[in-house]
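Could you help me review a protein record that somebody else here produced? This is what I was given.
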Amino acid sequence: MNIKAVPHQRFEGIYWIILEDGTKRIATRNLTPGRSVYGERLIRIDESEYRIWDPYRSKLAAAILKGMKDLPIRGRSRVLYLGAASGTTASHVSDIVGEKGYVYCIEFSPRSIRDLIDNVCRFRVNMAPILADARFPIKYSTLVGEVDVIYCDIAQPEQASTLADNAGIYLRKGGWIMLAVKARSIDVTKEPSEIYQREINTLKERGFKIAETINLEPYEKDHAMVIAQFEI
């Protein structure tokens, strides 16, 4: 059986790769053919190259495989990515938005941002690495413009508040947010479900309409993805 690439039935820029044994993996079309970011498998089919997307390494991939209904990140989207780390998921977001989209990558760790620059951003025209603390969004206001989506994956106790603070400055009206809630980073003494609800309530109080909440197990323990729209 030949390897095939089939566009995802709902999400622009995402593909199903059907492997030789008939198994299916999600993937994005590689914006930088020949280069992998985190050791992911590269698949060449006709004139395109695809990067297999590992849900155990990426919370966004996990949310897609857990049945996420809508993905607000698409071609041409401008995305503010809070907590880009060394670029595993951010690089797939870069693939999805394409050369006419843009990804502003905020990362606090000097070591991670060095890896992000050396291994990812210097090969991609649509990514900007920014060494900054997401808790103080005004400090990078000269570097970031208005965005369509904010994706937040930070290990901070006030994850929803930090995201909302950024949204107040950078997110367009009617724009979307995606929050990867890390329950154990917020409070190890409470049940994850209680933490998820607390973060959701914070978002509601800050003007967001919750679209869906996805538990990311078994790919990520004690994590959930919250998707919401900035109400007009």
